[in-house]
UniProtKB/TrEMBL annotation:
Transmembrane segments: none annotated. One of its GO terms (molecular function) is structural constituent of ribosome. One of its GO terms (cellular component) is mitochondrial small ribosomal subunit. Residues 96-118 are annotated as: Disordered. This is 37S ribosomal protein S35, mitochondrial. It comes from the Eukaryota. GO terms for biological process: mitochondrial translation. Pfam families: Bot1p.
Length: 326
């Protein structure tokens, strides 16, 4: 007897290993799919290996990538390093669109933050700005020489009071170092390189929010309070539960007195000592005071090394060996 097997019409073979988890190789948008670069020195060359070689550049006899164009900081007040469309000249984030640039045709116009991105495709990395030397001199002159209020200067330059206080303090430290001769040529060269590497602050573009209030550390932890459904509960009540002053009072201190007003209040709370309540049967009362570890840790000294395997030994005049106390 001859047995016939029925074959399903148009059978389709599916390779499960290729469609599992729906994974696709993350080819960059500026590469051609299916392109296999030629072999390099007998080694297998892939698209990703080719891109890595282009990024690192050639090696020298020590194995160092001396030709890596991204190994040095820009000196044109720009942090835009990588854009795949420009080949060797990859220090611009946006340029005039060409007919061949199909991947970037629908890109929206660049915003203020886009100019501060070192890597154009990473929107989470944003570079900070640096105050120019001319603006710094003018700002310090208005605060120290003319005696203007910090709030007035902050509104004029659209800069937070904390940053203005820091600039004034750093100016005083720099002046003190110059008088004492502590500024070396290496420090000047380093400062010049870092100054040219960062974008400059523009009040019209990079203006800061002057009404921002720093988050108190007490509010970082949850606190549950049982209240009636009809009982009103607002921000002022929440501040009382956390032991904080209202936000309006905090904002007033920041705008009128600066950041040091908050630090004085915090220091008064930190250095305050208190005696723990005594219960029935207690013989002693415990007093708690906030101190720094460096102020009390010196009395413990250094540990003995008698029980260490790597302890050191010395010999006296009689030739007797004894352990050395460090």
């Amino acid at each position: 007897m001859l047995a016939l097997r029925a074959h399903p019409p148009q059978a389709q073979v599916v390779r499960v290993s290729q469609v599992r988890y729906n994974r696709v190789l993350a080819y960059p948008s500026y590469t051609t799919k299916g392109y296999i670069p030629p072999s390099r020195g007998g080694r297998k060359q892939t698209v990703f290996k080719k891109l890595m070689d282009e990024f690192l550049g050639d090696k020298n006899y020590k194995g160092q990538y001396y030709d890596n164009r991204f190994a040095f900081l820009n000196q044109n007040h720009s942090t835009n390093y990588i854009d795949a469309r420009f080949g060797e000249n990859k220090n611009k984030l946006f340029a005039e669109e060409s007919e061949e640039d199909e991947a970037y045709e629908e890109r929206p116009p660049p915003g203020p933050k886009d100019q501060l991105r070192p890597f154009s495709l990473n929107r989470f990395t944003v570079t900070n700005t640096m105050v120019s030397e001319d603006m710094k001199k003018q700002l310090v002159s208005e605060v120290l020489d003319e005696g203007k209020a910090l709030l007035e200067v902050a509104v004029k330059y659209k800069m937070k009071i904390q940053r203005i206080e820091a600039l004034v303090k750093l100016h005083e430290i720099e002046k003190q170092y110059q008088e004492e001769g502590k500024i070396t040529p290496t420090m000047e060269k380093f400062a010049d390189v870092m100054y040219k590497a960062f974008p400059l602050f523009d009040p019209e573009v990079h203006g800061e929010n002057l009404t921002e209030i720093p988050i108190p550390s007490e509010t970082l932890h949850s606190r549950f309070v049982t209240i009636a459904e009809s009982e009103p509960f607002g921000p002022v009540d929440a501040a009382k539960e956390f032991g904080l002053e209202p936000a309006a009072e905090t904002l007033r201190k920041i705008t009128e007195e600066g950041e040091h007003a908050l630090s004085k209040t915090n220091n008064a709370k930190v250095h305050k000592s208190f005696v723990a309540p005594m219960h029935e049967g207690d013989r002693v009362a415990y007093k708690f005071t906030d101190v720094k570890v460096g102020e009390i840790g010196y009395r413990y000294g250094k540990p003995y090394r008698d029980n260490r395997k790597d302890r050191k030994y010395a010999f006296d005049n009689a030739g007797k060996m004894y352990p050395v106390l460090e």
